[in-house]
């Protein structure tokens, strides 16, 4: 079977766009330097600096309103779409600032995919079209045969192929919640991103569907850099190798997940993860 | 279970460890008392009581498992439960050593005494004292006290050496004493191992406080 990364060179041949780092340089390394974010005059993130490890899962935890979702929305330039959304600082993807003037945010969002809290398949589209939508929109693919290949591969990578291969023409909305979320992951994978951002991807799923997504994340981490925002600390402990704890817009502590959950350095981290507040 | 209820369960767990510790401490003193006084009834009682120690250990272990399953503890909560799981093993083994002394007492029976027992009771006293203070250090989350207690193991090792050398001279001088002397060496060995187990408990105290596993007392034996 052809793997996703085998397709990378073909994307480059088809669409050498301005603002795209050469695909052979893809590493999925994200360096965040003094990142602050505002909603209007409200400061939501205060000078966050963190190195995100490539091809690993980093979890972002913290109580509601701590800025964790804002943080990952800054990582693919989604925050600036919010009303009054403003960002300062740098986010370096493989060494290049995604906020540099010559960078197209659309290209960044293709390289840094995102999956949201609620499964959000395009309701009027079939399973197939949901996965193919991004490719069609960006005109990266036009020939049906190529599309079929990528859709199948993306669904396989999202561990959904076996369940939907006979109903590719059915509506994406006809799938179960867990399947819909994996469909959204397949849709993100189809764009062959370097990084996948997951914002509470399991919060609306039952435990079985949650475990499937977690297994999927572990598999995907072999090829992609994954950042997951989660309220569920057990989930962070189960799936991630690195964890950052956010509180009131600040990153209080970041380290190996095993250290954060067994011997956190900061008392605020300890108090939060042991349920003393939050 | 909310946080307050969880904390109550953690306190209860800690209290259970203290109860087990006092049962074991009592076993150390009573087994030595039985040996000193050739009190075979007391020795039998120590042996019988050891099963209560074993049951208490399993009871605490089950409570730990229940808390892990229901609370998925992390950070200091997790360290306390992991420490308890280790400490109760050491306590139970110290109880076995006390039972060992009681069994040796029964083996010695009414044989004539080889010598007045001085250093062995001192070893038992010191070991029991270290044990009690190590559990105080656990409750008080006092890593410094734990490190200090651990260093006191040298004193037990010194007494063990002394007892061993002295009993060796008896055996060298008169081969008829070999059986009796060997039995007393077993007693000393049980006490020396008990004190080593106390240093393990001290290491767990340091782990609870600092989150780091470190060997703080290296036994000579």
Keywords:
heterodimer, A: alpha/beta, Rossmann fold, six-stranded mixed sheet, four-stranded antiparallel sheet, B: 221 residues, mainly alpha, Methane Monooxygenase Hydroxylase, Chain G, domain 1, 7 helices, elongated
- Given the helix and strand composition of chain A, which structural class is it? alpha/beta
Low-confidence stretches of chain B: none
Gyration radius of chain A, rounded? 18 Å
Q: How much beta of chain B, percentage-wise?
A: under 5%
> Which CATH architecture of chain B would you pick?
Up-down Bundle
As laid out across the biggest beta sheet of chain A, the strand order is 6-7-8-3-9-10
CATH class of chain A: Alpha Beta
Order of helices and strands of chain B: HHHHHHH
N-to-C terminal Cα separation of chain A, in Å?
Answer: 46 Å
Question: How would you classify the quaternary structure?
Answer: heterodimer
Ends of chain B: how far apart? 45 Å
- CATH level-4 homologous superfamily of chain A: P-loop containing nucleotide triphosphate hydrolases
Q: Say how many strands of chain A there are.
A: 10
Q: Biggest β-sheet of chain A: count, sense, barrel?
A: 6 strands, mixed
């Amino acid at each position: 079977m052809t793997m996703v990364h085998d397709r990378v060179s073909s994307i480059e041949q088809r669409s050498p766009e301005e603002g795209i780092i050469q695909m052979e340089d893809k590493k999925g390394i994200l360096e965040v330097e003094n990142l602050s974010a505002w909603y209007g005059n409200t400061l939501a993130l205060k000078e966050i600096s963190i190195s995100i490890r490539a091809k690993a899962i980093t979890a972002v935890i913290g109580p509601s309103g701590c800025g964790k979702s804002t943080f990952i929305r800054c990582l693919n330039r989604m925050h600036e779409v919010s009303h009054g959304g403003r960002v300062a600082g740098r986010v370096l993807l493989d060494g290049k600032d995604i906020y540099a003037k010559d960078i197209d945010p659309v290209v960044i969002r293709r390289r840094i995919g995102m999956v949201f809290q609620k499964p959000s398949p395009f309701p009027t589209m079939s399973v197939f079209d949901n996965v193919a939508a991004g490719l069609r929109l960006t005109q990266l693919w036009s020939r049906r045969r190529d599309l079929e290949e990528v859709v199948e591969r993306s669904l396989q990578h999202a561990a959904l192929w076996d369940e939907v291969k006979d109903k590719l023409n059915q509506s994406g909305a006809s799938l179960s919640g867990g399947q819909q979320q994996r469909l959204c992951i397949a849709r993100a994978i189809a764009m062959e991103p370097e990084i996948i951002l997951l914002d509470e991807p399991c919060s609306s799923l039952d435990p079985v569907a949650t475990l499937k997504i977690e297994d999927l994340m572990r598999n995907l981490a072999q090829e992609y850099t994954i950042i997951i925002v989660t309220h569920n600390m057990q989930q962070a402990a189960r799936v991630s190798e690195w964890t950052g704890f956010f509180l009131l817009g600040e990153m209080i502590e970041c380290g190996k997940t095993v250290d954060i959950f067994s011997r956190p350095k900061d008392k605020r981290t300890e108090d939060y993860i042991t349920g003393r507040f939050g | 279970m909310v946080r307050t209820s969880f904390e109550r369960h953690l306190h209860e767990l800690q209290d259970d460890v203290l109860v087990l510790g006092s049962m074991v401490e009592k076993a150390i003193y009573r087994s030595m008392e039985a040996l000193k006084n050739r009190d075979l009834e007391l020795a039998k009682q120590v042996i019988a009581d050891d099963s209560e120690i074993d049951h208490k250990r399993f009871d605490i272990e089950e409570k730990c498992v229940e808390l892990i399953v229901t609370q998925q503890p992390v950070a200091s909560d997790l360290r306390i439960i992991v420490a308890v799981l280790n400490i109760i093993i050491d306590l139970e083994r110290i109880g076995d050593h006390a039972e060992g002394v009681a069994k040796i007492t029964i083996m010695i029976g009414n044989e004539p005494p080889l010598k007045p027992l001085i250093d062995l009771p001192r070893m038992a006293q010191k070991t029991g004292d270290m044990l009690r203070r190590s559990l105080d250090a656990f409750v008080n989350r006092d890593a410094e006290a734990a490190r200090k207690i651990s260093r006191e193991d040298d004193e037990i090792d010194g007494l063990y050496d002394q007892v061993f050398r002295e009993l060796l001279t008896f055996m060298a001088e008169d081969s008829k004493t070999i059986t009796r002397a060997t039995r007393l060496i077993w007693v000393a060995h049980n006490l020396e191992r008990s004190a080593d187990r106390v240093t393990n408990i001290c290491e767990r105290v340091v782990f609870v406080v600092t989150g780091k596993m470190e060997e703080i007392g290296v036994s000579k034996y």
